[in-house]
Amino acid sequence: MSYGDAASSAGAPRMPRKGFKLVLLGDASVGKSSILMRFLHNKFSEEIETTVGAAFNTKTIESRGRQVKFEIWDTAGQERFRSLAPMYYRGASAAVVVYDQTNAVTFERAQEWVRQVMSTSTNPNIVIALAANKADMEDKRQVPWEKAEAFAQQEGLFLLDTSAMSGKNVLRLFEGVAELLPDEPFVPQQRGLQVTTNVGSTNGAGDGKPPSRRLCCQ
């Protein structure tokens, strides 16, 4: 399943473009693919297909005077695909872990995902965001925001309250990750762990000073 490439708007100033691998992680039905569809096309569908294995998409956004090309792997959340996830995130520059705030079990699993990424990623500076999805169903919330906030602060995560249905904070989620990325994409030494495409560069550059690696609770 692929939603296609969505590039930055025509006529915008051209800046250096770098490809950063980003992986979406989380249990089944938490809304990973819906978040991605909202980010790529600003659309929402109740009939979205279940991801099998992983789906690949790209989108380029502007951040800190540069064009950041996200190379996004949307991974399946079913248990039978769980063992495949490290193949996608080990060489990633960023990971977005999603949970359904109306389902406490998915938050517990999200914590496991975060710790797994931190302990096994080949990138010691991987940017990790935590998306508390389905904010439009706040009346059914099972995970107190304070609990998510405490975990994010403890682990140094970029935390946002999101809704793929309404679009709340979805763009900000990816913009926040882009702001935290270093100037250069992570390149793993191990062969076969990185999936990238060749991208050109044009005149202009950032200030060479990456921001803090992570921040919490926007």
TrEMBL record:
Q: Which PROSITE patterns match?
A: ARF, RAB, RAS
The record's CDD domains line, in alphabetical order, gives: Rab5_related
* Pfam families attached to this UniProt entry: Ras
The UniProt keywords, alphabetically, are: Nucleotide-binding
Region annotation Disordered: where it falls in the sequence: 197-218
Q: Which PANTHER family match?
A: PTHR47978
Q: State the name under which the record lists this protein.
A: Ras-related protein Rab-5C
Name its species: Durusdinium trenchii
